[in-house]
Amino acid sequence: MQRSTFKVLFYVKRQSEKSGQVPVMGRITINGTMSQFSCKLTVRSSLWDAKANKASGKSLESQRINEKLENIKTNIGKQYQRLCDRDSYITAEKVRNAFLGMGDDCRLLLQTFDEYLAEFRKRVGKDRAYSTYEDYCLRRRRLAAFLEYEYHVKDIPFKELKREFIEKFVVYLSTVKGLASGTICAGVKKLRLMTYTAYKNGWILVDPFAGFHVRPKYAERRYLSASELQAVMDVELPNYRTGINRDAFVFCAFTGLSHSDVAKLTHADIHTDDNGDYWIIDKRQKTGTQFRVKLLPVAEMIYDRYKNLHLEGNKVFPIKRYYKTMNMSLRHVARHAGLSFNPTMHMARHTFATTITLAQGVPLETVSKMLGHKHITTTQIYAKITNDKIGQDMTALSEKTQQRLQGRAVIRRDPGISYPSHLFPPAGN
Question: What's this model's pTM, rounded to 2 decimal places?
Answer without folding.
Answer: 0.53
